[in-house]
Amino acid sequence: MTDITGYLISLTMALVNRDPRYDLIKSMYGKGKILSFNDIFEYVPKTVVATDLGKRVGDFNKMMDDIRKFTLEDLMLIAHFADLPEKKMFKLIEKEYFNQKQQRVPNLKKVS
């Protein structure tokens, strides 16, 4: 089985067997409880999302530590799993990007 075949099987299974905790993301975003991308993982375990994307958890953790390592496709799939509009997902990604950038370059102000 090729990597792409494994990825497609994993993605299909994720869509068919969608974890119900994904429903919390849209709700918690609306309540102001999710303000940046990494806040999502207070409601849906990283292991669930990593598996649904066909990623190894260790690789997924590295991606979370540097949001620039996610592909646009990965991010849009997470938005799809959560039924979160793409525009809202981009706001979360932007906030996470600047928060991480501020940690890399301490003199930058955090994005509010």
Tell me about this structure.
The protein is mainly alpha-helical. The protein has one domain. Helices cover about 60% and strands about 0% of the residues. It starts with a helix and ends in an 8-residue tail after the last helix.
Key features?
6 helices, mainly alpha, single chain, 112 residues
- Strand content of the residues, in percent? under 5%
> What is the 3D shape?
globular
Helix/strand/pairing category: mainly alpha
Q: Main β-sheet: number of strands, strand sense, barrel status? A: none
What is the number of helices? Answer: 6
- Taken together, the total number of domains comes to 1
Task: Give the assembly state of these chains.
Answer: single chain
The proportion of residues forming helix, as a percent range, comes to 55-70%
What is the average of the pLDDT values?
A: 87
Element-by-element helix/strand order: HHHHHH
Radius of gyration based on Cα positions:
14 Å
Poorly predicted ranges: none
The beta-strand count equals 0
Task: Please give the structural blueprint.
Blueprint: H1 3-16, H2 23-30, H3 46-53, H4 57-65, H5 72-82, H6 86-104
Brief summary of the model shown:
This protein has 112 residues and is an all-alpha fold. It has 6 helices and no strands. The mean pLDDT is 87.
